[in-house]
Amino acid sequence: MEESRQYPYWRRNLQVLPFANLLCGLGFSLSWPFLPLMVRGLGVRENLETWIGYMMLVFYFIGFIVSPIWGGIADHYGRKIMVLRAMLGMGFFMTLVPFAPTPLAFAGLFMLVGFFNGFIPAGMALLVANTPPQRTGSVLSLAQTGGLVGQTLGPAVGAMLAAMFDRQHWLFWVSGGLMLGGGTLVALFVREVKQVVSGPWRPEWIGSLRELLTVPRMGTLFLLGFLFQVMWSGNVAIISIYVLQLLEAQPAGAGAEAYWVGAAAMGLAVASLIAMPLWGRVLDRFGPARVLVFATAAAALTHLPLVFLQTPLQLVLARVAFGLTGAVMQTAIIQLLRIHAPAGMDARAISYSSSFQFFAMGLAPFCAGLIGPALGLRAYFALTVVLMLCGLALWLRGGRAKAR
User: Fold this and answer.
1) pLDDT digit string, tens, across residues 302-326
2) CB of 238 closer than 8 Å to CB of 364
3) What is the DSSP letter of 249?
4) pTM of the predicted structure, to 2 decimals
5) Distance CA 48, CA 123 (A)
6) Hey, is 113 helix, strand or coil?
7) Rounded distance, CA 364 to CA 369, Å?
8) CB 38 within 8 A of CB 171
């Protein structure tokens, strides 16, 4: 009864947000893999990889800059408006992308999509503020699962639609429509009990970050979120390249290359989809701190085989193991950010973590591009394992210091 009075909307939100995340995740990932084909269709025939590289870098850099600003607005004016900002803003500008007459116009509209990016962290911030603490783990896991389902189905649906359209950048119309649909569901059915900071909002980046970093263990949580995203999203393209390198030692045609690249991506996605609802119950029972220790160690251990393995099948199995054991790391971090953040700063804490994760998505391929040609991708994967173990050591050290 007390739970219903203090958190009256959590059950309704749980019914709506996972499906809204599914629509938005599907919309975002539906057109994303075909970005090079869209840019080429506008006339870029030379240095296509340079165009795409710069677009990706700027896209994630914009997210790195603006995410904490969105978090500050959420703390002052409510979390629901930030979910609507992300879903409706991204959806609106995605529908404009097909009208781009030149590659530069396409890139400009694409950057505006990046400006509004962040529907998953915005939704997570709303849920943690409007869900009973003892149920937060399972609720966040289900919401994250909705996004994962969409991201998993997106490339397959996009490939089917791309075969039907003469101009493949029209896929952005479908992407925009799906995201606008998700935002409409949130606008109509999601509710929140506003927990806002008194006083006017002032845009700031460094000040709030400095205040958060004075909180014990907050910096370590930012670091662990950064490292998780390096291994999760930042490594997607790197894993594909690694598959091709492993196949060089075996006679394989283009069909085999596509099969194993797809298998590596699908292995991670399907494993995480299976595991996340189960991890939600574990989070509610044992708490996010214990789960984070296990998930961080598992993330390091499941990446260790990448240093030694010899076949694409072994790589796929390693990605499945990571999806089954390490996928919950993100959810545990979000819960702990909510627990450790000062009153009225939980949305900003989650937004800063998201900001560093955007940076990780762009930095990981860049570092792999430097280390790979000189030392090989095995050295890059070894470095990520060492860094993750260092992050785990910092977290455990912080726990011992707190206990004293």
Assistant:
1) 999 999 998 889 999 999 999 999 9
2) yes
3) T
4) 0.78
5) 35
6) helix
7) 9
8) yes
